[in-house]
Design brief:
single chain, alpha+beta, Ribosomal Protein S5, domain 2, Alpha-Beta Plaits, 2 domains, four-stranded antiparallel sheet
Length: 222
Amino acid sequence: MAGDRLTGAYPVPASAVEVREVVRGSRFITLVGHAASRDDASRFVAQLRERHPGATHYCWAFNAGEPGSTATVGMSDAGEPHGTAGRPMLSALLHSGLGEVVAACARFYGGVKLGTGGLSRAYRGGVKKALRVCPTVTKTTWTPVLIKVPYEAVDRVRHLLGTLNATIGEQSFGAEVTLAALVPSGQRRALDGAVAEATRGRGVVLDREDQPPGSLRDAGRP
């Protein structure tokens, strides 16, 4: 399942899984799991080292962002020939349709050299096998906004937010109505036009982090 750009929802690993394979005498133990940051990925690799001490190499790769994103990625060949471990592992992650995912592999050398092609296939293949059995959950990213609308348009805007699966928090009533809301990040751009249409151009949507002190900046969070 790939990420849904319209809702800002995408699958992430629900728990870690481990697969094992022997290739020409070398044992490959591959672990795939969840990592929402570089630190998470580092801890994950450390766990592999603890679970399987004495390996010849501990190679890894991670994508801590949305599916296919290269904004927060990392990889390591851990002493294997350059480009034979971390890069093929990362490639498998980026094409998996999962976000916030990390893979780490412990290799126990079996005495037979696999060559660069054999190593790449083994490391990539281990990640793909783990991904096929990895359970997932859906994560939705949220954008906090303030929506200022005239009184006569409040019901229409509330209904609109419901259709977008947004969460309405604090509401302020003055010369106009101000709604604090959490909107699925994939809907943020569409929200401007939808509110303008629902209010005949009189409503405005503001990103909450841009608001001055004393605003509803922190309202509406679940």
